[in-house]
Specification:
The chain is α/β, with parallel strands linked by helices. Helix 9 packs across helix 22 and helix 10 crosses helix 22. InterPro entries: GT18_cat, MGAT5_Glycosyltransferase. It is found in: Golgi apparatus membrane. Pfam families: Glyco_transf_18 (PF15024).
Length: 796
């Protein structure tokens, strides 16, 4: 056994402590070198794959030149480390050998150090050899890159008349390409060629570069056959799609569950009605923009405090209908989810989507529409024909056309989108220019209807209004005092601890009730009375469906964006004559009474008449589950806003030899209007069917909406294209001393006092809405199905 003294043990410990960090350091250097080489060389080999990106070679060659310098510095550092270790060893040897009998310990001590220096020297040599090999590879790569750059440096902005905006877009890219990271994402690096490649392959402002044609992808195979939509028989998957995390979503899911059986029965009835008709399954994105945090989501916090629920009622019903019709749904309520589903590239939203839009249809609202425009770049213009905008109050064509709205003073914060007016889908059928989406009310079976009739309390009234602010209406004390003489008044006003002071003491306030308890209250009440606000909500229809009479105020003058703060800024000039125009115009007495609340005698007389009147529960078919399913099915099958139609031709002089083609319209037997000519051909794919068309001339100050309604019809803007011809004026015996094409939402029309006729220059401005004392308008009308005003008799 070898014995050592205390000094020897201390020296051994010092040696171990000294050498361990070197071992760790050397291992770290080796590992780092290996990783760095793999990364650098891997980048160089990947740079040879020219198809990866047109800008890869230049970027990675520059990185490789830096890598070569790093490798050399690592080699120099290892050589310097070896020299310092050698100096340290000689110094320690000269010190230790002066200690005589302890001389063996330095030899034992530096044997590991000698081995370590040999390893360091070997690593340094290997790194040096690798650096030389890398240098050779980099030189070859650099030569190839210079050849490619030589070709790239020859790029010039093409002068192609088919691409008139190319030069201007290149100029913009030179100055602004760093303003959005999305340009670098698509490979723009500041070179002229990268601008042209982007503007020709990602966007479409420049022609393709000839030398890029060699790498063009092969034509894609034809798409596979569409899957067929099949009616679903379970809503469980839809509840998962809706998601969680917001009170508004919880409310929507509760509503879907509550109406589930009615939805399923309605789906079975519609399936039988369609008799196995083939339907393509659509991929549909539903983005509820007003529930996103970016839009403020003011609705969710108010769900449990009496806030407005109409929008959430409608969205819940839209989701149920789309799902039961068998379409593939994706539901988003956040901007991040929207970007992910659309394929938005990283950046600030100036670039197109990374891939073709994967959705056939997108249902959203104005908030979602704005979010899509901000983040889809040029793709928004390309795909906006697939959007359907849920728009409570509607958007008239005059407000929708950006140029016209700006020139004529119709521009608002919510309009000017240049969509087809039928892409806006409303809660009620205010104007046929928009599509009527609607919602549903709960249907009663025969037993429930009989039970309601037997349990009605003839002297009970419920006030329409859950927020205390609604009860601040001036003058309410007068008509409530009259009502209190005849009926017990109930309220459902939200409060937390104290009774709202706005609610009179003689009103029995139940507080905010869950939906099923509110339904039970309506089933007992005789009267449901509105204070004039909120406008056009679902509650009056629910009350009428539960056997109540709805009493509402008549507005004189009518409320509109011209005289009322609530409508100011909304993209419509519609005049609202009562709190609920649909109930007034489409339902009416005995279910709906509209009176002047400022006339105490008229109000009291109406109360007495209502108490004597017996009414049954009533729900229009278009607000049943089956009616909504039928309507949405027809829209999805027939509405196509992506197929462009040519604008009306400008007027031109005709030679005597030229003859106009025979008109597709003919005078009706009683010579009062025009109808589709029996001899004219019919496009079997036209929707609505053209033989439902009737052409009537309005009176001055009458919109086409009112003109068609007076004849028991509804205005159909799709048919305007058949009227927008000079020959139609002649067929209606209208004298035209001159005929002009202009942009005006009232055209086609005639100014009879001066015999001037006007035709529409811009198809997006065809409008059923609007009137003027100067013009009589040509109005396209059609028939409609009983209880389903959105569809003609042969539209399903």
């Amino acid at each position: 056994m070898i014995t050592v003294n205390a000094d020897g043990k201390i020296m051994v410990r010092r040696c171990l402590v000294t050498l361990r960090p070197f071992r760790i350091f050397v291992l770290g250097i080796g590992f780092f070198t290996l990783c760095f080489l793999m990364t650098s060389l891997g980048g160089q080999f990947s740079a040879k794959r020219l198809g990866d990106s047109p800008f890869t070679i230049r970027t990675e060659v520059m990185g490789a030149l830096e890598s070569r310098g790093v490798l050399r510095r690592m080699s120099d550092m290892l050589e310097l480390l070896m020299k310092r270790m050698d100096i340290l060893a000689r110094l320690e040897n000269s010190t230790d050998f002066h200690k005589g009998d302890e001389a063996r310990f330095p030899l034992d001590r530096f044997q590991p150090a000698a081995g370590l220096m040999e390893r360091i020297q070997a690593i340094a040599q290997n790194v040096s050899d690798i650096a030389i090999k890398v240098d050779q590879i980099l030189r070859n790569s650099l030569m190839s890159a210079k050849m490619g750059d030589g070709r790239r440096d020859q790029c010039e902005v093409p002068r192609d008349p088919k691409y008139p905006d190319c030069a201007g877009k290149v100029e913009w890219m030179r100055a602004r390409w760093t303003s959005d990271p999305c340009y670098a994402f698509f490979g723009v690096d500041g070179t002229e060629c990268s601008f042209l490649i982007y503007l020709s392959e990602v966007e479409w402002f420049c022609p393709p570069l000839p030398w890029r044609n060699q790498t063009a992808a092969a034509p894609s195979p034809p798409p596979p056959p569409r899957a067929q939509a099949a009616f679903r028989s379970d809503l469980a998957r839809l509840l998962e799609l809706v998601g969680t995390g917001k009170e508004s979503l919880s409310f929507m899911k509760k509503r879907i569950r509550h109406l589930a059986q009615q939805w399923l029965r309605a789906a079975r009835r519609l399936e039988q009605k369609l008799k196995g008709r083939q339907r393509d399954q659509k991929h549909i994105l539903v983005h509820i923009g007003f529930l996103t945090e970016e839009s403020g989501d003011v609705f969710s916090p108010r769900v449990l405090k009496g806030g407005p629920l109409g929008e959430m009622v409608q969205w819940a019903d839209i989701l149920a209908a789309l799902f039961l019709l068998g379409h593939s749904l994706r539901v988003t309520v956040s901007l991040k989810e929207l970007q992910s589903n659309l394929g938005v590239p990283p950046g600030r939203g100036n670039c197109p989507l990374t891939n073709p839009l994967p959705f056939d249809l997108i249902y959203t609202d104005y908030h979602g529409l704005q979010q899509m425009k901000q983040h889809m770049g040029l793709s928004f213009k390309k795909y906006r024909c697939r959007v359907r905008v849920i728009d409570t109050f509607g958007t008239e064509p005059a407000y929708n056309h950006e140029e016209y709205a700006t020139l004529r003073g119709f521009r608002t914060n919510w309009g000017y989108w240049n969509l087809h007016p039928s892409q806006f889908m409303t809660m009620f059928p205010h104007t046929p220019d928009n599509s009527f989406m609607g919602f549903v009310s709960e249907e009663l079976n025969k037993t429930e209807r009989q039970l309601i009739k037997s349990n009605k309390v003839g002297s009970m009234a419920v006030v329409y209004g859950k927020e205390a602010s609604i009860w601040k209406l001036q003058g309410k004390e007068r008509f409530l005092a009259i009502l209190n003489k005849y009926m017990e008044i109930h309220g459902t006003v939200y409060y937390e601890t104290q009774r709202p002071p706005e609610v009179p003491a003689f009103v029995k306030n139940h507080g905010l009730l869950p939906q099923h308890e509110f339904q039970q209250l309506l089933r007992k009440a005789k009267l449901f009375i509105g204070f004039g606000f909120p406008y056009e909500g679902p509650a009056p229809l629910e009350a009428i469906a539960n056997g109540c009479v709805f009493l509402q105020a008549r507005f004189n003058p009518p409320h509109s964006s011209l005289n009322h703060e609530f409508f100011r800024g909304k993209p419509t000039s519609r005049e609202v004559s009562s709190q609920h125009p649909y109930a007034e115009d489409f339902i009416g007495k005995p279910h709906v009474w509209t009176v002047d609340y400022n006339n105490s005698e008229e109000f009291e007389a109406a109360i007495k008449a209502i108490m004597r009147t017996q009414v049954d529960p009533y729900l229009p078919y278009e607000y049943t589950c089956e009616g909504m399913l039928e309507r949405i099915h027809a829209y999805i099958q027939h509405q196509d806003f992506c197929t462009t139609t040519s604008p009306p031709p400008p007027p031109r002089a005709k030679s005597p030899a030229m003859q106009s083609p025979p008109s597709v319209l003919a005078l009706s037997p009683n010579a009062t209007h025009l109808v589709w000519s029996p001899s004219a051909s019919r496009d079997p794919h036209a929707w609505p069917p053209v033989d439902s068309l009737q052409v009537w001339v309005s009176e001055t100050r009458h919109a086409c909406t009112e003109t068609c309604r007076r004849h028991g019809l509804v205005c159909e803007p799709t048919f305007f294209r058949f009227l927008n011809k000079k020959e139609v004026f002649l067929q209606l015996s209208i004298t035209c001393d001159s005929t002009e094409y202009e942009m005006n939402h009232l055209y086609p029309a005639v100014a009879e006092n001066v015999h001037e006729c006007y035709l529409q220059k811009e198809p997006l401005l065809f409008s059923c809405a609007g009137h003027n004392s100067k013009y009589r308008r040509l109005c396209p009308c059609r028939d409609y199905r009983e209880g389903q005003v959105a569809l003609c008799r042969d539209c399903v």
